[in-house]
From TrEMBL:
Keywords of the record: Mitochondrion, Protein transport, Transit peptide, Translocation, Transport
UniProt name for this protein: Mitochondrial import inner membrane translocase subunit TIM50
Keyword Transcription part of the UniProt annotation: no
Segments forming domain SPX: 1-120
Subcellular location: Mitochondrion inner membrane
GO BP of this protein: protein transport
SUPFAM superfamilies tied to this protein: HAD-like (SSF56784)
Subunit structure: Component of the TIM23 complex.
Range of residues in the leader sequence: none
């Protein structure tokens, strides 16, 4: 099914007039020539659509804040308001997707007048709202508790003091998914670091890098943050638990992570380093997500090294590696962020990610049987695993030549 039809099926009917009209924007693009003629019409329509959407978002948010304040102690009214809050968050997500997709189509038909979706979205209230995220966290906590409580009683046995679900809502509607745990690689995913003596540092360091002093290094290291890093982390921090999992050693990575936290204002819930990785015959630094102790149905790993995923291929979002160049554009905001936002809405991310990136299939094509890897990891022993993976260097060479499909499209 095409994106437009999929989007239309997700819209909440009573809010339909306030969504960004992807259909309208797509229709305008039919008249935009490759030279960019007619692009100004698209620009004007995009501004009009996002302004209407943002105005409704702000009005609805204020209305829900007032409702919650007035509902103090009223369980049914609070439950209804919390459901609306989660709907409003979804409203923002769907509009985010519509804008991103429409801008991408515009840039294909009018490459002479490129638009940055990030520059459009960063000014929109529905894109990133700390107020909404704080309310959504309350809503998720309340509705999870309410849903579990309702499951303990049949309709006949439920005490009158407990209240019921708002009209039209069943128990399943009252259960919100847990917060998504987003596990982020560091080098080549979020940053790129080089020696201060390198040519890249001399060319770009004045305005694109951080100079970080490390205890084990005689000279400061030049660290390039990936374009859009701060906005990317800030956009995710309200609705996700962010974890750094790097194959780097702690003396190297810790000062960089601390710098990211200071610059972005975002605190990572956990930091994992090389000592936390798993040594396997095919890779010395595999990132086994089970060490986190989180629900793997609500955990995702973003990494540029496909071998990092080999113990959890169904939780993988392969990332395009970054080596410090300016050509990366808005990859974090326009390619990765839509994927993670979509995952926030899913009860179990694994079926979707397996279908989207097919990492298990990719490993098999490279000669790595995933069941064999998992059995080796579950205790068959390093020696047995080594015998199961004869010719490992050939395997790694094949992997290097055959990159997986990365998060490169919305």
């Amino acid at each position: 099914m095409k994106f437009g039809k999929q989007l239309d099926r997700q819209l909440r009917e009573k809010w339909r007039p306030f969504y960004v009209s992807y259909k309208r924007l797509k229709g305008i693009l039919k008249g935009v020539a490759g030279s960019g003629r007619g692009s100004s019409t698209f620009h004007a329509a995009l501004r009009e659509e996002t302004a209407r959407c943002s105005a409704f978002f702000v009005e609805k948010l204020e209305e829900l804040e007032a409702t919650l304040e007035a509902a103090a102690g009223d369980g049914d009214q609070s439950a209804a308001a919390f459901v609306e809050i989660l709907e409003l968050r979804r409203f923002g997500f769907l509009n985010f997707m519509a804008v991103t997709k429409a801008v991408k189509k515009h840039n294909k038909v009018a490459p002479c007048t490129l638009i940055s979706a990030a520059s459009v979205l960063l000014h929109q209230s529905f894109f990133s709202s700390p107020r909404l995220e704080a309310m959504a966290q309350r809503a998720e906590s309340y509705l999870q508790h309410k849903g579990k409580a309702m499951e303990r009683f049949s309709e006949r046995e439920r005490p009158a003091t407990m209240g019921g679900a708002p009209p039209g809502l069943g128990v399943m509607n009252l259960q919100a998914p847990e917060r998504l745990t987003v596990v982020l690689d560091l080098d080549h995913t979020l940053i790129f670091s080089v020696s201060r003596k390198s040519r890249l540092w001399r060319q770009q360091a004045d305005n694109l890098s951080w100079s970080i002093v490390m205890d084990h290094q005689p000279e400061p290291v030049c660290v390039f943050p990936r374009p859009g890093l701060v906005d990317f982390l800030q956009a995710l921090s309200g609705g996700c638990d962010l974890v750094i999992f790097t194959a780097g050693i702690e003396p190297y990575a810790s000062p960089i992570i601390a710098k990211i936290e200071v610059v972005s204002g975002v605190k990572f819930s956990r930091r994992l380093y090389r000592r936390d990785t798993t040594r396997c015959p095919w890779c010395a630094t595999v990132k086994d997500l089970s060490v986190l102790g989180t629900d793997l149905a609500r955990t995702v790993l973003l990494d540029d090294n496909p071998l990092s995923f080999s113990l959890n291929p169904a939780n993988a979002v392969p990332v395009l590696p970054w080596t410090g160049g300016v050509e990366d554009g808005d990859y974090l905001l326009e390619q990765l962020l839509p994927v993670v936002r979509d995952l926030q809405e899913r009860v179990d991310v694994r079926p979707y990610l397996q279908q989207k990136y097919a990492m298990s299939t990719w490993f098999s094509k490279c000669g790595v049987p995933i069941p064999g890897i998992q059995q080796a990891a579950q205790g068959s022993g390093v020696e047995d695993a080594s015998r199961s993976f004869q010719g490992m260097q050939d395997l790694i060479d094949r992997m290097a030549r055959r990159r997986p499909v990365v998060a490169a499209r919305v």
